[in-house]
Amino acid sequence: MEFAIKEDRESIDQKLSGAISQLVQTIGYNLTTLQAQSNKILSQQAVCANHEQMRKEIEAIGSNQDQLPARSDSILWKRPIRSCKDESAKQSGKYLLQPTENGELFLGYCEQVSFGGGWLVIQHRYNGIEDFDRNWTDYRNGFGSIGGEFWLGLERMHQVTSARKHELLVELKDFSGEYKYARYNATKIGSELEQYPIMLRSIVI
């Protein structure tokens, strides 16, 4: 009888241990699934927020004239342009760009003074007000305020540099006013599938 009781207890312990192990596995699976769904929702929210901001900026154009007043806080040209080099007025400021016929319409800043103009600004930092410690989604879609501190977005850079040949100009100035620059030709940004590699041909003196 004592042996039978001991055997029954061992059987119960084994079943209980198995049930606990299965419960732990189920909880782990549920947590993994929940985390994946949460990441997906956050990614979708970031994309929706980006599109909503773009919609508001386009609606804010609000003018019957093609060319708007040349103010730093205004979009200078109502109709989208393919490239900053296509902008005939050669005036620095915000423009609507559409690099390809069926591509995304987005707001960008064209620099028309430095090195002959025709430059699309992809990053601007000067006072540290914008947090650049961001995740993959933010760097893919872009963030900040065009005209202030901003990052244009890797996907837009990929679309822009895939449409035609581009150069890259990097300008740096420290707090004492010392200025340095580097200029590269044949610049291209790869796709998200390739993790957006930057391809530089050679430096221009």
From TrEMBL:
Q: Which UniProt keywords apply?
A: Coiled coil, Disulfide bond, Glycoprotein, Secreted, Signal
- What SUPFAM superfamilies has UniProt attached to this entry? Fibrinogen C-terminal domain-like (SSF56496)
The principal localisation class reads secreted
Please list the residue ranges annotated as the Fibrinogen C-terminal domain: 75-205
State where the protein is found. Secreted
**InterPro entries documented for this protein:** FIB_ANG-like, Fibrinogen-like_C, Fibrinogen_a/b/g_C_1, Fibrinogen_a/b/g_C_dom
Give one Pfam family. Fibrinogen_C
- What is one cellular component GO term in this UniProt entry? extracellular region
Say if the entry is tagged with keyword Signal.
Answer: yes
Return the Gene3D superfamilies for the record.
Answer: Gamma Fibrinogen, chain A, domain 1
Record protein name field: Fibrinogen C-terminal domain-containing protein
